[in-house]
């Protein structure tokens, strides 16, 4: 589906506003019905336009964004995995773990453990790059 230039610009603005809305409301109802109301576009048209403009479906974008949000929380907080799952819009820790494993090829617990090691290694490398030696 090819859009006229003015129409494309108008839809890009609506989709940009919608992306911002999604980022700020990851824990809320992000159903197609709810988001079409936010964007003021019919749900069928929103699905098509969103995919054309972003290159991924609305559902894919929401799932990916929620998982990235959760990964940041796992990396930067000591919050429980269950709380992170709920805050990311998942109804249970098991549903979250299943999606997380599919996306990151590891469980949230493994991710947290490995990302902590990774952060420590980056700090050590950064210190070495500045001429500091770790003994």
Which key terms come to mind for this protein?
mainly alpha, 135 residues, 0% strand, disordered C terminus
Describe the secondary-structure layout.
Layout: H1 5-24, H2 32-39, H3 43-54, H4 58-76, H5 81-87, H6 93-104, H7 108-129
Helix pairs in contact: 5-6
**What is the CATH topology of the largest domain?**
Arc Repressor Mutant, subunit A
Residue runs with pLDDT of under 50 for 5 or more positions? 118-135
Which class of the largest domain in CATH terms? Mainly Alpha
Radius of gyration: 19 Å
Return the CATH architecture of the largest domain.
Orthogonal Bundle
Dominant shape: elongated
The CATH homologous superfamily of the largest domain is named Homeodomain-like
Total domains: 2
Helix fraction bin = over 70%
Main sheet record: none
Number of strands: 0
Mean pLDDT: 85
Derived from helix and strand composition plus strand pairing, the structural class reads mainly alpha
In whole angstroms, the N-to-C terminal distance is: 61 Å
* Contiguous helical run count: 7
Approximately how much beta-strand content do the residues carry?
under 5%
Following the backbone from N to C, one meets helices and strands in this order, namely HHHHHHH
Give a verbal description of the structure.
There is one protein chain. The chain has helices at 5-24, 32-39, 43-54, 58-76, 81-87, 93-104, 108-129. Residues 118-135 have low confidence and may be disordered. It starts with a helix and ends in a 6-residue tail after the last helix. It has seven helices and no strands. The chain has 135 residues and is mainly α. The protein has two domains: 1-55, no CATH class; 66-135, Homeodomain-like (Arc Repressor Mutant, subunit A). The longest helix is centred in the last third of the chain and has 22 residues, at 108-129. The radius of gyration is 19 Å and the shape is elongated.
